[in-house]
Design brief:
By secondary structure, the protein is mostly helical. The relative contact order is 0.15. The protein is elongated, with a radius of gyration of 21 Å.
Length: 103
């Protein structure tokens, strides 16, 4: 047995399908749609968590840049996620004030 056989498994296919993140295709679209779903769900439950998740998904769907062409679901996810996060922070700040639950 020689050492020559080691390391040749990835030479023919250096960018194996399961080993690298796909740069094009449905991955960005899926992230944008998942971000929109998180943003919409965040208006009803756990907005403080789902809002930032929606922003992150939208930003990753835009290929982590603000320039160039932007897919519509990614922009919607970022905008709704930001609105969702701001509303959740305002709600939490309002719930933290003294006497908020009396009337």
């Amino acid at each position: 047995m020689t050492m020559a056989g080691f390391g040749h498994g990835t030479r023919r296919h250096p960018r194996a399908r399961g080993r690298t993140w796909s740069q094009t295709g449905p991955d960005r679209a899926t992230l944008g749609i998942a971000g929109v779903i998180c943003a919409v769900a965040g208006f009803f439950v756990l907005g403080i968590v789902l809002g930032p998740v929606a922003i992150l998904c939208g930003w990753l769907a835009m290929n982590r840049t603000w320039s160039g062409t932007r897919p519509v679901p990614a922009v919607i996810a970022v905008v709704l996620g930001a609105i969702d996060t701001i509303l959740a922070i305002i709600w939490l700040a309002g719930a933290a004030t003294p006497g908020a639950g009396l009337f």
